[in-house]
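Example for tutorial group B:
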């Protein structure tokens, strides 16, 4: 009988141990492995798309690398903002005006989204006359810009300020009495002629490096070249451009002046 009782105890101990082991396996069970190819095995956290590069709004007085990039881009497109120094000054402003005029944008100082889009996909200036000589100057009086062509391609696009249309009286050179007229820049087809190096004093003021193309009407540098027609009839242009214009523009070069719709 004692042998039988001992065997019963042993059996009970073994049964309890089996139950304990079974309980550990249930409470500390590892996470089930995902099947290969299942969503949980291959999915990765969604990546945040990189935003497209944007341009900050620029206005005169701004400084920085983006201003210098703007200047270099304008220069690349044959506009002349002056030295690419990263400063949004008057020279850059006048190049911006010319670009806006050619691309049909409203001329304003602050540059926003529409300007940057146009700068990425710029338009070419449209010819002013049916006759398109390879070397010529086209003047758009409505939009206030000129284009100097060399070998059939734009070499320089500049902002200008032409005749204001105001009525004024002044003495002509050598005259004794004043003559009254309207300050206008006549349209038509002309050719470049007489020129003067440096400042020339005329009855109506001082002209820097003038290149005449229609009697007393000339392209010339001026200290004031506003965004609107303001001259007595000449075609004012920025001083830094007038410095080298005579070297680009020879004598007897066709000039087409128009006021397109």
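The residue assignment follows.
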């Amino acid at each position: 009988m004692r042998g039988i009782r001992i065997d019963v105890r042993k059996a009970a101990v073994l049964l309890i141990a089996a139950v304990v082991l079974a309980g550990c396996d249930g409470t500390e069970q590892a996470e089930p492995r995902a099947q290969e190819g299942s969503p949980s095995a291959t999915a990765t956290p969604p990546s945040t798309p990189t935003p497209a590069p944007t341009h900050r709004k620029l206005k005169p007085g701004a400084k920085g690398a983006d201003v210098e990039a703007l200047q270099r881009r304008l220069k690349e497109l044959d506009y002349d903002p002056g030295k690419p120094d990263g400063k949004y000054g008057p020279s850059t402003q006048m190049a911006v005006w010319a670009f806006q005029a050619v691309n049909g944008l409203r001329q304003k100082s602050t540059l926003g989204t529409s300007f940057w889009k146009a700068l990425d996909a710029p338009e070419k200036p449209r010819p002013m006359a049916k006759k398109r000589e390879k070397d010529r100057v086209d003047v758009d009086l409505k939009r206030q810009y000129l284009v100097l062509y060399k070998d059939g391609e734009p070499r320089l696009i500049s902002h200008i300020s032409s005749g204001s249309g105001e009525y004024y009286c002044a003495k002509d050179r050598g005259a004794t009495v004043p003559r009254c007229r309207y300050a206008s820049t006549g349209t038509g087809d002309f050719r470049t002629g007489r020129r003067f190096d440096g400042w020339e004093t005329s009855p109506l003021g001082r002209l820097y490096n003038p290149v005449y193309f229609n009697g007393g009407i000339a392209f010339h540098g001026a200290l004031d070249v506003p965004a609107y027609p303001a001259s007595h009839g000449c075609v004012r242009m920025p001083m830094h451009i007038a410095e080298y214009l005579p070297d680009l523009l020879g004598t007897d070069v066709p000039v087409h002046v128009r006021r397109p719709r």
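The two ends are 126 Å apart (CA to CA). Compare this with the pattern of hydrophobic and polar residues in the output above.
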